[in-house]
Specification:
Length: about 260
């Protein structure tokens, strides 16, 4: 027992910044499978706090039970998408991301060291990604695989500085997906106006609009070997119609 304690203390030194992963999640046939896969990844990352935000009026039993059994330090929140998004919104998950940041602004302070990452439930994350982002000073960036009809999008780096973007959707100041950046906790706390905009949001612009409130291109910290390694993939789980036969009637199955 004493040996175990010693080892775990060595693995997570007290000054190691905490990685806060904010995950919006909503009821869909693949939800539990997606969360299971993501949980299996995050459980292996030291000093990580998972902020799971359900897109729902009330917290579901499914996610509540899943998190209780997850063996990951977590905070479970919920917020339904606003009425004007009920029939679909380009800013999918952003009401929930904003709530995750609100929680951090209320529950963490300038003495806390950490980094904030927006990790959707259906992406695929290499464990190495988390150590790349952990010591982010302001905003760090890296490539994202399987996105915008490409094998990857990525920041273009010259002499250690980000100078542009290889992207399927040019014309953005920050040509990255939600999965392609992390922000220092104190930068989030010091900039309460930095939120995702839902109302009137333009398709594909939310990451760029958000980052514009926090930093400038020249300050970005390129990770993953000057943005030449893919450590996260924008995988998408099959959409609902494939699983249209929902459940047996009158049988209690946990799915
Ligand atoms: N999401 C949500 N409410 C929605 C749609 C999506 O909370 O109405 C979450 C979803 O679970 C995921 C993130 O927002 O974590 C991004 O959604 P999705 O994966 O569907 O977007 P895509 O990958 O297609 O851009
Ligand atoms: Mn997705």
């Amino acid at each position: 027992m004493a040996v175990m304690l010693h080892l775990s203390l060595m693995e997570t030194p007290p000054d190691m910044p905490v990685i806060y992963v904010i995950t919006p999640t909503h009821m869909r046939p693949t939800q539990k499978a997606d969360l299971t896969r993501l949980g299996n990844t995050l459980r292996q990352v030291p000093n990580l706090h998972w902020i799971v935000v359900e897109d729902a009026e009330v917290k579901s039993l499914k996610v509540t039970k899943f998190l209780l059994n997850s063996r990951i330090p977590y905070t479970h929140l919920n917020a339904p998408k606003p009425d004007y998004c009920q029939s679909g919104c380009v800013a999918r998950g952003s009401e929930q991301r904003n709530l995750g940041m609100d929680w951090l602004r209320q529950n963490r302070g300038p003495l806390d060291s950490g980094v904030v990452y927006f990790g959707d439930d259906d992406n695929t994350y290499d464990l190495e990604l988390f150590e790349e982002m952990r010591y982010t000073k302001q905003v760090s960036v890296w490539p994202v695989g399987l996105i915008a009809a490409r094998w990857y999008e990525r920041p273009l780096v010259r002499d250690g500085k980000v100078v542009g973007w290889y992207t399927g959707f040019p014309g953005r100041k920050f040509g990255t997906d939600m999965a392609g950046f992390a922000v220092n906790l104190n930068l989030i706390l010091a900039n309460p106006e930095a939120r995702f905009v839902l109302k009137g949001a333009q398709s594909g612009m939310q990451e760029s609009d958000f980052l514009s409130k926090l930093t400038k291109l020249e300050y970005l910290e390129p990770k993953a070997n000057n943005c030449t390694k893919i450590l996260v993939w924008h995988t998408r789980t099959e959409s609902a119609p494939l699983y249209k036969h929902v459940k047996e009637k009158n049988v209690d199955i946990e799915a």
